[in-house]
Amino acid sequence: MEQQVTNNSKKLKQLPQNLSSLKTVSYDVNARDKLHAIWFLGPSLLVLAVFVFYPMLRTLYLSLFLTNNLGKPTVFVGLQNYWSLLTSSSYLASLQATFVYVIAVSILTLIFGLLLAQAASFKVKGSNFFRTVFSGTMGVSVSVAAIFWLFMFNPSIGLLDQIASVLHLPVINWLTQPGWAMTAIVISTVWMNLGFTFLIFFGALQTVPVNLYEAAQIEGVSKSYQFFHITLPMISPTVFFVSIITLIESFKSFGLIDLMTAGGPNNATNLLVYRIYQDAFLNGNYGLASTESVILAIIIAIFTFLQFKILEKRVTYQ
Amino acid sequence: MIEAHSKRQKILEYTVLLILTIFILIPFILGFWTSFLPTADISKGALWSSHLSLDNYVAAITQTPIIRYLFNSLVVSILTMLAQLLFCSMSAYAFVFLKFKGRDGLFYLVLATMMLPFEAEVIPNFATVRSLNLLNHYAVMVVPFLTSAFGIFMLRQAFLQIPTEVKEAADVEGLSHWQFYARVVLPYSRISLLTLAAYSFLASWNQYLWPMLTTFSDNFRPVQDGLRQLQSQETFNNWGMIQASAAIVVIPTLLVLFIGQHYFKSGLNEGAVK
Amino acid sequence: MMKMRQALLKTIGTAAAILTIGGVWATQVRAQATKRTKVVFWNEMTGPAQQKLNEFVKEFNQSQTKYQVVSQFEGNYNEAVQKILNTHGTDASPAVFQSMDISTSQIYHSGYTTPVQKFVDQDHYDIDKISPVARAFYSEKGKLLSMPFNTSQPVLYYNATLLKKYHITPPPTDPSYSDITRVATQLYQRSHQKVKGLSVEIYGWLFEQFMANSGESMANQADGHNGTPTKVNFDTPGAIKAMKWVQENLKSGALMNFGSGSSASANEMAAFLSGKLGIFLQSSADISQLTAGTKDKLGITYYPHPDGQKANGVAIGGASIWISNDKPATVQRGSWEFIKFLMKPENQAQWQAATGYLALNKDSQQEKVLQELYQKVPAAKVPSEQLSKTKPDETNSGVFLQGLIQERTLTQTAMDQIYNGSNIKNSLQQAEDAMNTYIKSNNQANGVK
């Protein structure tokens, strides 16, 4: 890190002139810094300690207990909560559903995000309009998205089933059939993600040097070849960045589930965070919910760790 | 030949753009459109009515606390944003410009907190805010988010770009750390600060689970949970009013997004690529 | 760059302005409310019931000058229980709150409330005026814990106009499963599959009622009336018969599955009101919404029972009102005054007319508003008839078990599976096993042997 600062020093240009006269520093810099460190870092460290470090330890602690109806840990049971979760078919189903959801959402978000970014780069009239539209869902918060899509998926008045009945296709009970409910949640999530993903990808596409395409054009290379052999490699760091972010955010999905399916039907959309909420704040089973929290934290930690590795690389070698 | 080819390509391009536009826009359009229809017509499955009106909006504003919800969200988001700008930048400053024992260790510790999802910690955090007697207050939605590891990380990267000579010169001039922080470092990194501002504001605005657990009255409930509240109260399927409420919530953010798109885009790429 | 700086400054400036205005506003609001003793009242009522309840609050506040009741909606019944327990002892907690039937055991055991009996005794309140069946549900050893407030009966609704249109004989007042199957199938077929015959929402409460109406206990220790239950039984003959009935109608296409949760019941009602659904099972509390929402004639019958077996009667549903013990005596007194206000004969009568919940004050039946209702909608009498016909026994007086929300979640999951074609016995057995594991660890955690 220090080295980086030194390297940057070559860009010396912003030195205010009145600072250039030399004075010797006569006091102990480190002592002064130490004192300042307390003031500069104190507030943040306090908040992180109280709301991030302590709760993690506490959650670990609670996960080893049974809690009574007032949420107090009463009986130490060791790893029994973990054992009962990992042998419960319903929890395993939740785990599986979460992975299905996360993978589907991530892949579709990437594909559609790229498609939007690519389409927005077409040199056609009105492309500014399309760019604005494509970034639109970024301004949509989770509850608004849920309301929009609840209406789309409504079995008796929703648009999708109205179209289906006009075309004499079977009417789908989107939110009450397990497979379809998951599909509906995935569609809504992807739709919500697209605004942000589009903006990032579109920005990345602009950084690809134009002469690469020009050269390809001269060679007479097809568009799809250009995409896979020029565009994608050039923006691959961004693609990776977006996919990890989407992955992690999907693991934490809660709002859409709560508003659209409440984990149903038949627990088909009972993803990890919703389950924690259900077990803790509906059933009052805080010990078990803590165990579920620990499992969630481990899964997310793994993916965040991956993200760091990649981010670090990019920051250093850019 | 070539002209025909390029014409065909243009048509193809427009078709792709159009299909994508429809997919993105349909939920919006349908939502906004139905917000002008009488609920009685909507619940019959009619998407056309001769009684277009603003009645649903009037009903949403006069019969529900939707405006109050918006206000609450605004207060919480602004407070969170300002706090994060201050505390994150202070911490980032310490990690870049202060020399003290265990600095790197502490930094990695802060980084490590990014691996811990807040969602997995709600149970003890609820107990904490409960014992601090913060429940059902703006403070409960701000205090746990006064700082963010992501913000510290991002600003640290920005501060590292400041040439060492600037710092050396400041030392020579006798600027204190506070003076250097406020007069040189912050103005130098304003783009990153703006990005963090946007990010923290949006993150706070979109909070859903935590306010749902910790607010119990309309005086403090933010808009995300307010909409949930309206939806669950409306057993009668008052779709017109629900859609109008959603529109009231989404229109300001859309406007901000479109007006600020220019800043936002550059900011985001800055944040993402750096 | 300049632009950005300006933007940043503007944002901060606006923020500061908004916060100042907001602060001033908040303090003003607070200043206005300080003269009276504030009594925060949590409720979970929606739709017309919420409107009526808020009217009561307003009337109560205008009727006296000592107390100011502040009504706050806390989402659905399930959410509210943990909110109540979690906030106890903080400034956010309610002074008086509504909590659902099946939470009675849990709230009582928390020790967070003052039994209503204390105020009944202090005031020599004539408690005999309040329905004894409802009181029994919320009493422990003859001591009234909370005041029964919104009390409903599960009933069956049908669209009489639709049946007439397709020349279908309506079901009898005390129908069996096959009576309903006949009507549902005829409706579905004669409407050329345009009208769905029947809906039974995936709702644990309805499942519990199928068992009660078959005369079966869900939990041991006589549904918890003789002691803390240690086991439940879901795959009883009565439960299986009910689920078979559902599957039979699913197979013929007559039954529409709306799923579970609040959007399920909303969609179910919307379908019924728009004439796309002929019959559904739901709380009597929906009557007013149903009569207001459609011009079609509404039919109501008792809860259906298994074939070749007499209906054992269903338990009451709904909720009662409790007084928290973490507030000063004056606030608790205010809570009690508010409860008394709600239980006045005229208010109980208005409550039934506005919602469909049963008026619990015996004097309410003479009130004009109820007499008019019975004249206009004769079917509105059916729920109270069903109630008075029921002979209370251990199986139809509710289940006294902590953690019944878990039971609802599990039975609903089982119903969900069954509605999607799974084996009935397996699904119920699975739910039962999960519930028994839960009860075991829950009893252990709460020190029950």
Biggest interface: A-B, 115 and 108 residues
Q: What is the CATH third-level topology name of the domain at 65-233 in chain B?
A: MetI-like fold
Number of domains of chain C: 2
Largest sheet of chain C: 6 strands, mixed
Which outline of chain B best applies?
globular
Strand content of chain C: 5-15%
Counting DSSP E segments of at least 2 residues, the number of strands of chain C comes to 12
Please write the CATH class name of the largest domain in chain C. Answer: Alpha Beta
CATH architecture of the domain at 65-233 in chain B: Orthogonal Bundle
Summarize the main sheet of chain B: none
CATH architecture of the largest domain in chain C: 3-Layer(aba) Sandwich
Please count the beta strands of chain B (DSSP E, at least 2 residues each): 0
Number of helices of chain C: 19
**N- and C-termini, Cα separation of chain C:** 71 Å
Q: Terminal Cα separation of chain B, in Å?
A: 46 Å
Give an overview of the whole structure.
The complex is a heterotrimer of chains A (318), B (274) and C (449). Chain A is mainly α. Chain A has a domain at 90-284: MetI-like (MetI-like fold), CATH 1.10.3720. Chain A contains 13 helices and two strands; from the N terminus they run ααββααααααααααα. The two termini of chain A are 14 Å apart. Chain B is 75% helix and 0% strand. The model of chain B has no long low-confidence stretch (mean pLDDT 87). Chain C is of the alpha/beta class. Chain C folds into two domains: 35-152 and 317-375, Periplasmic binding protein-like II (D-Maltodextrin-Binding Protein, domain 2); 154-316 and 393-445, 3-Layer(aba) Sandwich (D-Maltodextrin-Binding Protein, domain 2), CATH 3.40.190. Chain C has helices at 2-32, 47-63, 77-87, 104-110, 117-123, 132-137, 160-165, 177-190, 204-213, 220-223, 237-252, 262-273, 287-293, 329-342, 345-355, 368-376, 382-389, 404-419, 424-445; strands spanning 37-43, 67-73, 96-100, 113-114, 139-140, 143-144, 147-152, 154-159, 196-200, 277-283, 298-301, 317-324. In chain C, strands 1, 2, 3, 4, 7 and 12 form a six-stranded mixed beta sheet that branches. In chain C, strands 9-10-8-11 form a four-stranded mixed beta sheet, with helices on both faces. The termini of chain C are far apart. The model of chain C has no long low-confidence stretch (mean pLDDT 89). Chains in contact: A-B, A-C, B-C. The interface between A and B is large, with 115 and 108 residues.
